[in-house]
Amino acid sequence: MEWLSDPNADPVVNVDKLTYAGNLRSLAPLQDDPRHRFVRADIADGQAMAELLARHRPRAVVHFAAESHVDRSIDGPAAFVQTNIVGTFALLEAVRAYWSALEGEARQAFRFLHVSTDEVYGTLGPQDPKFSETTPYAPNSPYAASKAASDHLVRAWHHTYGLPTVTTNCSNNYGPCQFPEKLIPLMILRALAGEPLPVYGDGLNVRDWLFVHDHCAAVREVLARGRIGETYNVGGCNEMRNIDVVHAICDLLDELRPRAQGSYREQIRFVTDRPGHDRRYAIDAGKMAGELGWQPAETFATGLRKTVRWYLDNAEWVREVTSGEYRNWVSRHYAS
Ligand SMILES: NC(=O)c1ccc[n+]([C@@H]2O[C@H](COP(=O)([O-])OP(=O)(O)OC[C@H]3O[C@@H](n4cnc5c(N)ncnc54)[C@H](O)[C@@H]3O)[C@@H](O)[C@H]2O)c1
């Protein structure tokens, strides 16, 4: 949607498997835009990827598809290995075959942009310098390990085969349309439902929060002007402790949708910590700023206000992704 808000933008073929985390309703604003085409497919299906590349002949592939939730990776790591590693491998191979057959300007201009995470770098102490592009990889969760593996595959496909890749490693995203298993939408929706707000451990784990539109802008910059074979760290310059994030959400809801009595903060409950929970992530986005002139436009306060407003204004979207009805619809819709 961000991409197509530019009237001069190239068309997009949007490929997604529609796992539990995918939601076609998020694409509703694009349904009348002839520049957008949705295709349901699995990146691990190399033949399907090859056919799509042959049919649509893209000038770039931007690889967002992933299993992305750390808690789910602890409960069931197999899906993470399958999509993030095997899927990335299958996609790289299909893209390599397509790119190898391109000629002239089309071959020069082609890019494969791989979207990854800051979690590949492991965890920081309170005084450690922020993650830079040269920080050694030290992934701690099955999710982070699977993303690290995919980053290594992308790196190798560039160094060995010359595939023109660029990789972004970004911090925690938040904003509209985020599936409500991630911290911020989870807290907003549980608060509104009158449910306990579960905060892991002592609540002092630190994340660097990046508003999703700032992330999209960074991806566009790297795609347009990033140097081939390079990686770019993308952060929001918003280091926040989890408990402070939850307090900020409660305070906004107290203002925008007050409870009959008392504050949403009363719903906060500390729960047993996630196994291997990384203590702190922080991104040094100096390379993005220095080379590409990118900086986040939102502070955490402005981005969070927009996010809370969006969830308050989009109850129907929330109802669909959380009810199971949406998933049943997808099965029926794609039965043939
Ligand atoms: N959300 C964050 O805070 C964050 C932070 C850093 C990096 N990232 C990265 O950004 C990307 C997007 O993250 P997200 O939060 O939107 O994830 P998400 O889990 O909300 O959505 C992932 C999407 O990928 C699709 N998908 C999953 N497996 C697929 C497959 N095999 N084939 C095709 N499509 C498949 C899902 O249907 C879904 O639409 C991921 O690569 C993730 O690692 C996310």
How would you sum up this structure, described in words?
The relative contact order is 0.13. The longest helix is centred in the first third of the chain and has 23 residues. Helix 1 runs parallel beside helix 3, helix 3 runs parallel beside helix 5 and helix 8 crosses helix 10. The protein has 12 helices and 11 strands. Strands 3-4-5-9 form a 4-stranded parallel beta sheet, sandwiched between helices. The protein has 336 residues and is α/β, with parallel strands linked by helices. 43% of the residues lie in helices and 15% in strands. The protein has a single domain, classed as NAD(P)-binding Rossmann-like Domain (Rossmann fold, 3-Layer(aba) Sandwich), CATH 3.40.50.720. Nicotinamide-adenine-dinucleotide binds next to helix 3, strand 4 and strand 6.
Chain-wise SSE layout:
Blueprint: E1 12-16, E2 36-40, H1 46-56, E3 60-63, H2 70-75, H3 78-100, H4 104-109, E4 111-117, H5 142-161, E5 165-170, E6 172-174, H6 183-192, E7 197-200, E8 206-211, H7 212-225, E9 231-234, E10 239-241, H8 242-256, E11 268-271, H9 286-292, H10 300-313, H11 315-323, H12 325-333
Parallel strand pairs: 1-2, 3-4, 4-5, 5-9, 6-8, 7-11
Antiparallel strand pairs: 8-10
Helix pairs in contact: 1-3, 3-5, 6-8, 8-10
The structure holds nicotinamide-adenine-dinucleotide.
